[in-house]
Amino acid sequence: MLKHYQHFLTVQFAVDEINKDPHLLPNVTLGYQLLNNFHQIQLAVESSLVWLSGKGPTIPNYSCDRQHKSMVVIGGMSSTLSMAMARLLGLYKVPQLSYGPFDLLLSDEVLYPYVYQLGSRESTLHLAAVQLMLHFGWTWVGLVISDDLTGEQFFRTLKEEMAWNGICLAFTERAPELFQKEHDEFKLLSRILRSSSKVIFIYGNTNSLDSKNMIMSNFHGTLMFSHFEREIPGFTDFLSSVHPRANPEDIFQKSFWEVVFDCKLSEINSVDIAHERCEENSSFAHVPHIYLNKIIIGKSFNIYNGVYFFAHALHHMLQTEARDISELAAKPLLSWKLHHFLKCVNPVYGFRVELCGDGTSMTTEAYNILNFKSFPGRFSVEVKVGEVIPQEKVLSINEEDIDWPEDFPQIPTSICSVTCSPGYRKQSLEGQPICCFDCTLCPDGKISNKTDAEQCIQCPEDQYPSQEKDRCLPKTVTYLAYEETLGMILASAALCFSILTTFVLGVFVMHRDTPIVKANNCSLSYILLISLILCFLSSLLFIGHPTPAICILRQTTFAIVFTVAIASILAKTITVVLAFRATKPGSKLRRWLGTSVSYFLIFTCTLIQMCLCGIWLGTYPPFLEMDTHSEASFIVIQCNEGSLVTFYCVLGYMGFLALVSFTLAFLARNLPDTFNEAKYLTFSMLVFCSVWIAFLPAYQSTKGKAMVAMEIFSIVVSSAGILICIFAPKCYVILLRADRNTLKIMKNKADH
């Protein structure tokens, strides 16, 4: 009675307001009769019979009160009680206003045609629940619903909305209205407690969970939804005016008064010595909030609406069906005519919105978020801590005002799996809900920049993943520059060898009249040395910032000057072989020993290479490109070779010339020592072929700057191999053993 006494006061307040309203039911005074059913079905049916008969003990089908003026019944507080009452009241077509939560079963106009539900349909309650879950990050939630049609319909809508927002059901339990056996209740609670979910949502007729075995402290810290109601002015002033002495017939008020003020009202000059006498100036306005809420909310608000709902319907009825209330008093069972007018008033907003016909009222639902707080002495209070408007996705909540359950010193967390940090993605587990997952590190080249990412995303081509793979960083533009160590080493090597080659050329020019220079065809030696200088210098085109012009020049320049060098070696090899063969008297090979033949050979070989390069440039020439894939954190500016087929044809042609030179030199290795330059030519071509054969697979397996460095290295090493193998022995004789660089010594060697 302490918990629901506000229901009684709300009826009194609403009736008092209507009786003072000159525009609503003028010249009519409303009254009421209070019957308590103690939330028991048997007493609810008995109270209905008492109301119908007018007196107790009840006599079915008899009315013992000749002036039965009651026209409508407001009750019960739950759908179960409402159904029990409706089965009896419906026989007499008595309008029944059910002020409990809306129930689909009661909306059946065939079974319950005379029941009007004052509670809202709660069509968006599932949206409000999901918004609250999302606000606190609860993605692993248990659900307990009443085992009836209303619970099942709510379950379907809530489950769909939860799945849409990535929230999973840890379990779903259906609580019957009454447990068949006492231990069934403990089985249900044990299944709930075994779940890993820390948050449980309860919906429906939950009376079965509020049994004698449950204490109020078990629900301390619970958050509840209540329909958003406007504050009704005047209720606090009304409470100040209520006093048991002003209404001595209200036994409920007397009992409530004595409990909340812990006093005793005087009765026939006797005072209970165990309690103090109640003070005369006390009022309900001074009652603590835990005993009596000063704001009409919840079911009390439904009752308030119900009284006005009935008043508006009666007002319309009096204007059309009867001129005076006395006509209704003469026909006590005329209340069935009230149904037509009750259907023309919105049962939820009856005191504000009047409707007739088949019209409907579309309103935006809003809910209060209440925090249930229990106190010693089995007292409890519901404190408003927030509001939610589901359709508009507006939620405001004051978390500082929330008292959480004792096991949770702060906002509880309820998740199946630990949140995946940025840099990871969720990996679903087979046979598990989507909320249960493992966290997998994003693969190379991809990132996730939010928590619980479903998929990792690819960084743009001009960006690369951070080490944590939680963001994309801009790539640095790079190329093989002179300033970096590798570029500096390769450039220095190329310059040093080109200087060294120039020095060798100078030595040969200065000693051009010596036998060793003349014996090795000095003109071909000059061409070879000049081409080697250009080979070394051509490698510098591969270092530094590439441009479209450099991309075209560097490969063609390298190919042509290298072809000149190899053709010169081929000419020298052929000259050595022919010189040995032409020593016989009358040999016709002497005419092939002239320099013009060697020049023609070099020109022809070079011309063929130039034609290949021309085809290359005319079909698919090299071009400048930005390589974003070779190095993770860099954009490499490099030259794309264009047609790889033509590129390898150019290299293959040089390889063919080198192979011919190597073969001829190898066959001439047994010539006399005086003329035996073939050995050095053989070694030089062996080095050249070895370098470029090794270059091909290395070139294919490297990318970016490493590929460029590999080609520069091959150019420098192969050129250096030719220089050293062919000219080092000659320079040694010219510079260090000048005594051996005479015609007499060479003839002596020839004789031996």
From TrEMBL:
Pfam families: 7tm_3, ANF_receptor, NCD3G. It is found in: Cell membrane. Signal peptide: none annotated. Residues 486-750 form the G-protein coupled receptors family 3 profile domain. Keywords: Cell membrane, G-protein coupled receptor, Glycoprotein, Membrane, Receptor, Signal, Transducer, Transmembrane, Transmembrane helix. PANTHER family: CALCIUM-SENSING RECEPTOR-RELATED, VOMERONASAL 2, RECEPTOR 118-RELATED. This is G-protein coupled receptors family 3 profile domain-containing protein.
